[in-house]
Amino acid sequence: MSLGSALSSALSGLAANTRAVDVISGNLANALTEGFAPREVTLAATRDGRGVQVTGIVRQVDLGLLSDRRLADSARAASEVQAAFARAVESSVGTPDAPNSLTGRLATLEVALETAATRPEDTNRLDAVLSAAQDLTAGINDAAADIARLRTAADRDIATTVQELNAGLQEVAALNVQITTGQSRGTDITALEDQRQRTIDTLSLIVPLRQVPRGDASVALVTTAGGMLLDGRAVKLTFAATPLVTPQMTHQEGQLSGIAIDGADVPIGADRGPLQGGRLGALLDIRDRAAVEANSKLDALARDLVERFQAPGLDATRAPGAPGLLTDAGAIFEAGNALGLAGRIAVTRLVDPSQGGALFRLRDGLGATGGGPPGAGALLGALSHALTQTSVLPSGLLGGGARSAANHAATLISSLSQERVTTEARLSFATGQAAEFRAQELATGVDSDAELQRLLLVEQAFGANARMIQTIDDLLDTLLRI
After folding, report:
1. CB-side exposure of 378: number of CA atoms within 13 Å?
2. In this model, does residue 163 exceed pLDDT 60?
3. Per DSSP, what are the bridge partners of residue 222?
């Protein structure tokens, strides 16, 4: 080997070692940085064979593990949304041990009726019946209003999430262009690839994604249900939020917005369409199924209570077509108008002195024009019995079987509590699974011990190349002195 070749080899080695030191120091500095993949320098002989050259910086990523971790993160995000909704609904209705739960309010009304029946002449006891009935209807109204607010919030969050998805897809598309351009120019694109990975990680929380590599270092994004979101260019998702979602509004009937991809409507729902899963899928499921079912259960209970008190023969003074003690916004309940009844159920104004009514009608009948015998407690006893006798709900959401009003309310609370327990169990599993994949991913990340060992090897190589240059310098000095 000539001195020139040896010098060229040593100088190229020093340059490669310097680049390797930069990469190793970057790995160590970013060992805890989210989304950072360890780098490794790739080397090759120069074309003339007189040295070594850096051919690129390679990110060390396990794409299979990355994909599994993203899917687990997506499932966890969906479970978090569903569990939060189930907890909120259960809190609105109350648990059996809470005095302000529906079962507690209903028990208070039963006790008030029984107590008033023993002393029907006591105005205070009649007033207690009125207060308990109003408290029960207010509790049902409040629970229905809470469910409506949760449904409206889900619709609003869908709009925000769609905007985030659009923005993220545009960012990935722009990064694809920068990465392919940088690769063609031979510049380091690893930082851009890290940024793209972090962006796709965020998008995977919205909807479960698969990353498909393309030959030019760009990637395509497709949902696990087969919806193409990005391939060269990003699609555009559109959704129109509804300011106030009422129980009567549904997506199937066209009152609520669906989602369109590039102007084409797509099926939505927990088990169909290209956007199922993730936070977006969970929000759609809450708006179109979970909240609707919770409201239907509440409507079924409200209907049962109203029908118990407007049953024929219960109050002989009540005129035909007139409502009972509990009403549909002051009117008689019609079987075809059950939707949203939980938000309209109210105590008749005929027994409320603050609305021009009279307490004696609780004792003497809603159609009574004047007070009857003070000791007549038959109607109060009949009202109490109406709550305890068994009936079958017209809705099947709370199961079949004849039950008392209290047992129907207990079944409602139990079903909502079970839904909360189920969603929290799914959340626990999804969280554990996501944490395990995250731990595996971190295990394949920057290994500080291995990086320090590599640094020692680079240091030795650097010293060897420096020694070679020093030796060549000494030889040239010797030749020049001859």
Report:
1. 10
2. yes
3. 210, 228
How far is residue 207 from each of residues 138, 151, 170, 196, 428, measured CA to CA in Å?
39, 20, 15, 16, 19
221 Cβ neighbours under 8 A, 6+ residues apart: 169, 172, 200, 203, 209, 210, 211, 212, 228, 229, 230, 231
Listing DSSP states for 422-463 in one string gives: HHHHHHHHHHHHHHHHHHHHHHTS--HHHHHHHHHHHHHHHH
| Measured distance CA(38)–CA(186) in Å, rounded | 19
pLDDT digits (tens, 9 = 90+) for 325-381: 999 999 999 988 999 999 999 999 999 999 999 999 999 999 998 888 888 889 999
Smallest CA-to-CA distance from 109 within 309, 360, 282 is with: 309
- Residue appearing with tokens 């009574």: 368
For 321-367, give the DSSP string. T---SEEETTB---GGG-TTGGGTEEE-GGG-GGGT--THHHHH-TT
Distance CA 366, CA 319 (A): 9
Hey, is 173 helix, strand or coil? Answer: helix
Helix, strand, coil percentages (3-state) for the chain, rounded to 5, are 60, 10, 30
How far does Cα 393 stand from its chain's mean position? 31
| Nearest to 380, CA basis, from 361, 367, 403 | 361
Q: What burial letters (b/e) apply to 108-134, b meaning 16+ CB within 10 Å?
A: bbbebbbbbbeebeeeebbbbbbebbb
H/E stretch holding 403 reads: strand 402-403
169 neighbors 219 (Cβ within 8 angstroms):
no
| Prediction pTM value | 0.87
